[in-house]
Amino acid sequence: MHNFDFVKPASVADAVAALAAEGAQALSGGMTLLPTMKQRLAAPEVLVSLTGIAELRGVSGRAGASVTIGGATTHATVAAEAKAFYPALAALAGQIGDPAVRNRGTIGGSLANNDPSACYPSAALASGATITTNQRDIAAEDYFQGMFATALGEGEIITAVTFPIPEKAAYIKFAQPASRFALVGVFVAKYADGVRVAVTGASNDGVFRWAEGEAALSGNFNGSALEGLSVPSDGMIADLHGTAAYRAHLVKVLTKRAVAAAM
Amino acid sequence: MPKDGGIGASTKRREDIRFLTGKGRYTDDINLRGQAYAHFVRSEVAHGRIKGIDFAAAEAMEGVVKVFTAADFAGVGGIPCGWQITDKHGKVMLEPKHPVLADGKVRHVGDPICVVVADTYEQARDAAEMIEIDIEELPAVLDMKAAIEPGGTLVHEEIGSNLCFDWGFVEENKAAVDEAFAKAAHVTTLELVNNRLVANPMEPRVAVADFESHSDQYTLYTTSQNPHVIRLLMGAFVLGIPEHKLRVVAPDVGGGFGSKIYHYAEEAFVTFAAKVVKRPVKWTSSRSEAFLSDAQGRDHVTKIELALDAENNFTAIRTDTYANMGAYLSTFAPAIPTWLHGTLMAGNYKTPLIYVNVKAVFTNTIPVDAYRGAGRPEATFQLERLVDKAARELGVDPVALRRQNFITEFPYQTPVAVVYDTGNYHATMDKLLEISDHAGFEARRMESAARGKLRGFGIAHYIEACGIAPSNLVGQLGARAGLYESATVRVNATGSISVYTGSHSHGQGHETSFAQVVAEMIGIDAAQIDIVHGDTSNTPMGMGTYGSRSLAVGGSAIVKATNKIINKAKKIASHLLEAAEGDIELKDGKFTVAGTDKSVDWVGVTLAAYVPHNYPLESLEPGLEETAFYDPSNFTYPSGAYGCEVEVDADTGQVTVLAFSAADDFGNIVNPMIVEGQVQGGLAQGIGQALMENCAYDENGQLLSGSFMDYAMPRATDLPMFNVDHSCVTPCTHNPLGVKGCGEAGAIGSPPAVVNAVIDALIRGGHDVKHIDMPLTPSRVWAAING
Ligand SMILES: Cc1cc2nc3c(=O)[nH]c(=O)nc-3n(C[C@H](O)[C@H](O)[C@H](O)COP(=O)(O)OP(=O)(O)OC[C@H]3O[C@@H](n4cnc5c(N)ncnc54)[C@H](O)[C@@H]3O)c2cc1C
């Protein structure tokens, strides 16, 4: 790891100001950024910690309407506190990594990083969530722009994420055997105006919605509605852990299971 | 009931108190005054010619002491290989030089090119980033079969071939084996890969060295399973340091699984550099570096055939194996696919004719050497998969086919050199069927089927050759060392005992179980006995710990030395009791004149030995300290029956291990709890190999599984509660404890049981799948199901 300066502001405004410095980078849970720095693949000159900013932490919501999660809220807090509002989201958070990772890692860090195998992006996209930054509100639809790419600008901070609460939803994660990130993860959310299916882990373009599956399930929210559909394997990730065809196949299997598990 | 602390008692491991409370003293805990830090700059390409190294800028950086390259090692020997194989034409193996730092060429990703030594670790790493290395990349040699075709790229030009040796065993049997195949009523053939593994002990390797110029004395602290072997190999062959000027210490070591047997370049480097820079030098491997520099395991590509007669008796076995050596020969590498593999091909079966061919091949990959089981898992996997496949082809029960061919009379001379002294394979098979509730399987399978899951049961029976090894025999087979073990038993004046053993504990619990042996023999409390190991300055020359040898060989040395102690103590007691030596009995720490109540206790004798006022000085030396070396007359042959029950989710290919049962015959047991722990750990590693672990390279020789993000280690949640039994006992006939060794069994017997179970589940589920190569990841199982 290279040397760096460390600041821990107490407000978003101070954090934004600190991030304006040359070579500054936001640090939230550090579960992604610190290992990258240790491997010397990243060398920020200033780390601006977001964990001391009270307004970035916590879960609040209105039952049946929406739940809002502060950008620096840990996975463990989401798992515990979002349960009353959005059990499928809380369950997703409770399956990320291990207890140490869940006690450090945050929703803002996960969405900002947009790892193609991360869990949260599927929930945000399937829920039609709004990503709120210090500058603007971004619809999930517009936010995810491919592997590790998002709509965030330089120095822009995710302050909160708001999830409209669906009638029913579930996330099914099929773990990559080594990292235990999602080899494929499918988040299914049923709203009054239709069903949304978002898939993580599978595509070279990052998280995506399975439109055909959504159409079928919007007509009939039952796994049988997916019979006859198949997910094309073009553009799917192929690696040591699974071929493109395997991942494409899993999308459908896991969607079915998510529908069955939806609560 | 065994006596508390004696042989047979599940005494809690005394060393765990320090391990579990963070009080262990590992090599990385050793920091010497004024030490500098070494950072290795390693090759990023698998194969290339070094055109130039520009380190001037790096050497000028703050804190940098010196940058070392191959040029600094011009007068230094290569890393030696400890075993020389003679091939089927009587030719000795090709043995290329393995320089401490890459000289002219790099031959695998991770091959060290230069080393920065600096005041701090960060300074060394910063400076390393400033070094410019000009490398002309060459095509990487990866596929073993292609590698030995003439005219291809050579890993080592100077030896003229990538074929290290072509070994035939037993060459004289080949014609008879071929004839048996020609006459066979049935032949079963199986082609398979034994996947390459990374050992991944919890503690990565570390080496710290010091040199005292006033005494010419070197000290190396290193993460080793055998400090004396390192002293010999490094001192005599690499750096030319005589043993009395080189002390090697392996303090607490956090797991090895074989990977810490070998002498590594980093050890030689820090020892050499400490003298050059006139201060101690320390190197601590990162986990990423461990993936690139620790010797890896397995990596065989095999075709095996079984010939049977019309009554399903095995008549011959023929195998054809390509064994990956990696880029250089690691310390024991050539012995693994040959003497630790070919000699095990008989398994538990009375197959009269066996021929094993092994081609050892150099590739542009990290060197391969012994990993828990070492050659024996490879042999067992082939054989037990093959027997299962044969049973299916013949439509017979795999248990019945095994039983029909079991060896039942001992000693048994196999056609592959070794002689099994004891065993009772029907007993372990019976025990397995009992503890795994084999009879209830069908009901459990129906229950799984009702949930849409495919359930299968797989069996494997294994034999292993442990207690390595008779020195005269291994000498004939090409070993460049003896494989005895040593012990010094030092009884102190007030009766407590320090036992100095040449074995090395890096997780095995020797400090507890060795003390139990001595406590039992003398009849004193085990708390009176300490086991000391890991330091060449205070232990007799020992060969270390691997090959499930420590209790069988090291324990036997302790027994021998303790017997010498007891004999001398009896002489002292006879003097004190004024009785004939032959009348003295030792029981419960007390010497008694047989048939009388005249006695002297242990401390009475030990005090007399050191305060010899009333002592037969004219005929007996004072003191009570004895050393013994034990060289085994044969290997030991643990065996066992393993059963695995799995459930397969056909939609995803996910395999869940529901139950795993192990019925082992380890001979006599000193500490059942430790034995159970050893078996459980071995099972975890074997199941890991079967389902998860895979060290993979891409077509350019880049390591695809270079971190835990891609190298899948089994976790507790991936494993069932194990059902471990070792009540079947046929004691070893040739060592004093009757013990056989248990350290590797779990890793040897489990992979074929797991794969057999998955194949069983798939076939019962209506899928015509004959074999899937390990690891049976969900993706591979799904692909097999879907053709
Ligand atoms: C062992 C392990 C297992 C894991 N398993 C999983 C898993 O199963 N599923 C999963 O989804 N993830 C997993 N993760 C990743 C984990 O969820 C991380 O917490 C997450 O990727 C990053 O969050 P963080 O708060 O740690 O971010 P950091 O590492 O602090 O930052 C990551 C990036 O986001 C930026 N950033 C951080 N916060 C903000 C913000 N509020 N606004 C803008 N930019 C910001 C940083 O500058 C940096 O570029 C795992 C991680 C580890 C170490």
TrEMBL record, chain A:
Keywords: FAD, Flavoprotein, Oxidoreductase. GO terms for molecular function: FAD binding; oxidoreductase activity. SUPFAM superfamilies: CO dehydrogenase flavoprotein C-terminal domain-like (SSF55447), FAD-binding/transporter-associated domain-like (SSF56176). The keyword Flavoprotein applies. SMART domains: CO_deh_flav_C. Signal peptide: none annotated. Gene3D superfamilies: 3.30.465.10, CO dehydrogenase flavoprotein, C-terminal domain, Uridine Diphospho-n-acetylenolpyruvylglucosamine Reductase, domain 2. InterPro entries: CO_DH_flav_C, CO_DH_flav_C_dom_sf, Diverse_Substr_Oxidored, FAD-bd_PCMH, FAD-bd_PCMH-like_sf, FAD-bd_PCMH_sub1, FAD-bd_PCMH_sub2, Mopterin_DH_FAD-bd. Residues 1-168 form the FAD-binding PCMH-type domain. The keyword Zinc-finger does not apply. Pfam families: FAD_binding_5. It comes from the Bacteria. This is FAD binding domain-containing protein.
Automatic annotation (TrEMBL), chain B:
SUPFAM superfamilies: CO dehydrogenase molybdoprotein N-domain-like (SSF54665), Molybdenum cofactor-binding domain (SSF56003). The keyword Magnesium does not apply. InterPro entries: Ald_Oxase/Xan_DH_a/b, Ald_Oxase/Xan_DH_a/b_sf, Ald_Oxase/xanthine_DH-like, AldOxase/xan_DH_MoCoBD1, AldOxase/xan_DH_MoCoBD2, AldOxase/xan_DH_Mopterin-bd_sf. Residues 21-139 form the Aldehyde oxidase/xanthine dehydrogenase a/b hammerhead domain. One of its GO terms (molecular function) is iron ion binding. The keyword Oxidoreductase applies. Gene3D superfamilies: Aldehyde oxidase/xanthine dehydrogenase, a/b hammerhead, Aldehyde oxidase/xanthine dehydrogenase, molybdopterin binding domain. Pfam families: Ald_Xan_dh_C (PF01315), MoCoBD_1 (PF02738), MoCoBD_2 (PF20256). Keywords: Molybdenum, Oxidoreductase. This is Xanthine dehydrogenase family protein molybdopterin-binding subunit.
